[in-house]
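Model the whole thing, not chain by chain.
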Amino acid sequence: MTAKQFTSVWTREPRQGKTQGLTRDQIVRAALEILDAEGLDALSMRKLGAKLGAGATSLYWHVANKEELLELAFDEIWGEMSIPDPGSAGWRDTGWAFAHGMRKVILRHPWVAGLIGRMPAIGPNSLRAAELLRKGLHQAGFRGLEEDYAGAAITAFVFGSVIPEVAWFSAAAEKEYDAESMREIIRTAAADYPELVARAEEYTARDPAAVREMNFAFGLACVLDGLERRLVT
Amino acid sequence: MTAKQFTSVWTREPRQGKTQGLTRDQIVRAALEILDAEGLDALSMRKLGAKLGAGATSLYWHVANKEELLELAFDEIWGEMSIPDPGSAGWRDTGWAFAHGMRKVILRHPWVAGLIGRMPAIGPNSLRAAELLRKGLHQAGFRGLEEDYAGAAITAFVFGSVIPEVAWFSAAAEKEYDAESMREIIRTAAADYPELVARAEEYTARDPAAVREMNFAFGLACVLDGLERRLVT
DNA sequence: ACCTGAACACCGTTCAAGT
DNA sequence: ACCTGAACACCGTTCAAGT
């Protein structure tokens, strides 16, 4: 009945590595290498330990568990996002750059897609980004809860766009599916809905990267238009 | 080098259960019970087998692997979505109802959040829903690729909103974290960003379910406004 | 302070064997 | 046609023991 205490990597001091042995940074860097090269499912404590020339269980000295290690890795990559200071650019440009920046980071590190929403984004890099977005929206004129809502709308759209995007291309890539056989499956599965099939055919006939870009730009423009309208009235 | 053939549960006939033994339906229903009661991570082939009074490995006669079993379960729940026929309602109402319907389904079955984007949504229920959305947007006036983009914008927003929503409350619920200790962590982690902390305080001070509802409604209205504007001009 | 190895309690899946 | 059990190759994590 008594509620458990919530704890977090971000409010606990890392154990201090004087000079010897492993450091938390080293571990996170090695984890990122595995994640980038082989994906989320490929990261195991044993494999990570081996890569560092240590036993798997040694890692537990530096990190409470795998979940917290992933929190550290998750935050790390948001450091790559370059966001224009909302002071100089207009809020709409800031939102645009923010959304595209997030998307690029996720496409560069597809494994994050599997972590989004699973962990609190309260690491330093996540917070830095959140603060810049908040500042931009505040300058735009949003106040109080609407400041949150507006920011949530943008990030929700980005996450919801990019998660399936990543899943499709990384599944297709790592399993090397034949594109034509995928189309064939869709044709027969959706045989009852000819218009849906027609849409899928046109969609897949073009350069996939370009279509996805346009898809993203279209939706983002909708969200930003909606926000703008909420400011005017 | 030769690309692998893509296969799918949806285009393969289920092995026919004459009268005896397990059926695929039975397995999927039992899986859904475990998923609803205990969540995605709690579903294992062994546990599912035991629930059905069978060996874990018996399941592999009816289902190729766990992934395909999850595809079946994933599609099943979209059957609960009731969508107004776009013929009678206006497209904006259809979009609104569609988005809220999706959200409700996900909140009722939080485990789906972990599957979104991970599998092709080409089961019968998913397709039925997709077709209704497509029809609504077509009637609204969208044509060609914009029909896809408009639909993708709506679903992206819904998924991106609901995934973190589900993650937070289900993590908080199942681990029974003390709400005050979570606020405390945020306060110290975000100590450098007083405005961000202030936002979080206001956000968490209110009835969480109501705030999330408003958050969702706000963002959805933005997306729909944006779509509307793209129709007019 | 840091690391190790053995051990525990799990996984998904394959496959020869049974009925 | 359907199910079983043993087995394989893994997991994350704990903990007493080492240095």
